[in-house]
TrEMBL record:
Residues 201-240 form a coiled coil. The keyword Coiled coil applies. Residues 1-141 are annotated as: Disordered. Keywords: Coiled coil. This is Uncharacterized protein. Residues 22-118 have a biased composition (Basic and acidic residues). Residues 1-10 have a biased composition (Basic residues).
Amino acid sequence: EGGVGRRRRGIMTDRNPLYNADAKKDFREMQERIKHMQGRDKKELSSQTEARRRGEAEWSAEKRQMAAKEKARQDAMLRQRIETAGERGRDSKQLDPRTEQRRQLAVERREAIARDNARGLPPGQANMERERIKTAGAAPRTAFHLDREVELRREQEEALRALKRREVALRLMNDSSSFKKTLAYIGSKGGRDEKALSGAVEEARCEAAERRADFKRAEQDKIKRENEEYRRKVAAAAEANAGDE
């Protein structure tokens, strides 16, 4: 089996497991044992690994049972909700009128939300407005009234945003005292309706237009005075030159 002193590529064959037959045989047996353990040979599987496997199997079975119970509970709740709302086998004579009214209102609200989504409104905005209006109201309204109130609220918010943009423009062209007066006037009109809002905007716009006109007249007067002064200087210089000649 390759005696002592025989060399191959400078390596002792009796000390190298790759070239020693006995060592190679032991190495192959060890690989077979490892392969059997990895292949879950029950005879060589340790008791700890087997206990852990049984525990995991029991926990998986328990989780499946819990999921089945939860699904059965949710199905029972759904069936009860459907029967309460009258979606299955509903008898109009025995159905509670308040339940029918709530069901009809829910259907209208879902249709209104679908229309808002089709119009491209921000997600959830129309729904929040509708919930706020419904909570503040005393009697249940239809989707038509809800849409009208949402549209009115949106128009008021757009007018308020336009007013804020004009306030920024006024800040750039007005002095600090006039701007403070404008802000004080606008701030005192909290909770105003559209007529008062448009009146405040119109007054601010007129004031800004008057200031622009005054500034333009002042610039024109300044240019006119400078031109007259230049003409006088030219005429005086011409007279002086004529006298010298």
